Amino acid sequence: MKKNGINLYNYAKTIIPGGTTLFSKRSELHLPDKWPAYYLKAKDIFLWDLRGNKYLDMFCAVGTSILGYSNHKVIKSVQSNINKGNLTTLNCPEEVSLANQIIKHHPWAGMAKFTRSGGEANALAIRIARSCTNKKNVAFCGYHGWHDWYLSANINSKKNLDQHLMPGLNFDGIPKNLKNTAFPFPYNDFKYLSKLINKKKIGIIKMEVMRNVKPEDNFLQKVRNLCNKKKIILIFDECTSGYRENMGGVHLKFRVNPDIAIFGKALGSGFALNAIIGRKKIMKKAENTFISSTFWGERIGYTAALSSIKEFKRLEIFKKIQLNGKRIKKIWIEKSKKYNIPIQIMGSNAIPSFIFCENHEKRKTFLTQEMLKKNILATNLIYITIFHNKKNIQKYVKVLDKVFRDISLNKIGTILKSKVCFKPINRIN
Fold it and tell me: Which tens digits make up the pLDDT trace of 334-367?
């Protein structure tokens, strides 16, 4: 008899801290005690749970699968190379091929390195940047992983990461001598950043290019100019935004180039691969420090990324992603107006999201519960894929209409059968 995902998750919490290795996949963030939690298989935009129930997935894997789950071209390439050997004494040539491809997409860059995860990539970028400057302090804006350099911001004040990660985050295990080495700044607040630079001996600025709101008043160019003037190294963290709206980093659309950029998630189509690129003079500094990990040499990620890039071109996916995202936003606006339920729509067309202007967590939980009743995995955020098309969102729209209607009729109290979900990771920009 197949296990129940809810029971398995409850058991997992007794042997895995938090129940799962990835924070964003905790059931408490979606539908406490009701979320199916585990899957048997996945294809395109569909998942099957441990009992074989099929779901339309409107959330989509924390942004890793813009080609949909188990893209046959990518899978075929990966399987072919696995059969030839995945990790050996020698290096795989795909590493060189991928470095060459990504640098071609970003003419300002001269060298590349690779990791498996985004947290590793962020830590590596900071290490390289710090090796290039005597001013080791970092000003940051956004979410940049779990490593000591980042979480140390909360040693100064437990509120420092409230808007970048989550409120009141503990910093147990972080050496206290890292205090006053990492400082947050608000997105689009150039005046605040300028004052921070003058006060804190900042040598590195790390930021997400764009997520929930667009840069205003030439913000990105002003940051670039400030870095040039103060000889500060600028890092763009595009683990989420890269290779999702265009062939490369979204910074290319704004015509503002960093000194180092990081890509992940969409680049590998569900396989673990992150890229760190930069100006050759800066990236060469990696040779003056120790940066290495056995499984960074796996063939899988490089193969998947190379195959994904081919599919991005062949299918012209960035046009489809934009179109599907605009379609979703339009639907949200229509339902909000129809039932007079105020919402705030945020994010790019590739990662649209919304918040209820009143009782957000409770209403979000209700939405997820009602969607799950109809075998749809959904929340208030969608990582758009090429399969978020008219055909696949028809079922979603029908349930969404009922959710907004029930909210307008104040029915949540009688229909909601779950605890209210936890507040997820914040995103300042």
Answer: 999 999 999 999 999 999 999 999 999 999 999 9
Burial annotation 52-81 (CB, 10 A radius, 16+ → b, else e): eeebbbbbbbebbbbbbbebeebbebbeeb
CATH number at 350 reads 3.90.1150.10
> pTM of the predicted model, to two decimals?
0.95
What pLDDT does 1 receive? 37
Nearest to 371 by CA among 56, 104, 51: 56
81-to-87, 114, 304, 382 alpha-carbon distances in Å: 10, 18, 10, 32
Rounded to the nearest integer, the mean pLDDT of the chain is 95
State which residues form the domain around 269: 72-315
Supply the DSSP symbol for 297.
G
pLDDT, residue 62, reads 86
**What SS3 class is residue 286?**
helix
**Residue 167 confidence (pLDDT):** 86
Tokens of 312: 């991005």
Dihedral sign (CA 15, 18, 20, 21): negative
Judgement on whether residues 161 and 281 belong to the same structural domain of the protein: yes
